[in-house]
Design a protein that fits this description.
This protein is α/β, with parallel strands linked by helices and 118 residues long. It is 37% helix and 19% strand. It is built from six helices and four strands, in the order E-H-H-E-H-H-E-H-E-H. Strands 1-2-4-3 form a four-stranded parallel β-sheet, with helices on both faces. The longest helix has 8 residues. The protein starts with a strand and ends with a helix.
Amino acid sequence: MSMGRNRGGGNDASIELETVVRLGLPMVVVVYDDEAYGAEVHHFGPSGHPLDTVPFPAADLAEIARGYGCAAVTVRERGDLAAVTTWLEGPRDRPLLVHAKVSRRRGSWWLEEAFRGH
């Protein structure tokens, strides 16, 4: 199983990490961290709406996931993905959270595509 979230959605759903740990699901959760509610940036920003409540301060989401009992890794560059390979090759006895630090300057590119034309 795997699940992807952006930072805002990841914050909203973080309590679900307790559920996947408790159930022992060998799940990979990827949080694309642009330090904002990316959907709001792309939906409201182009219309000139203020976005001062949309960004988040930096946070260690991997450490938060470890607090729930997950294995976790923060990915800033390609080499950091080796920890994902190690988890896949291991016993996979607990979920893995991948904290993917993406650029805050541009925001969530996948959401930009989703909101194009809306």
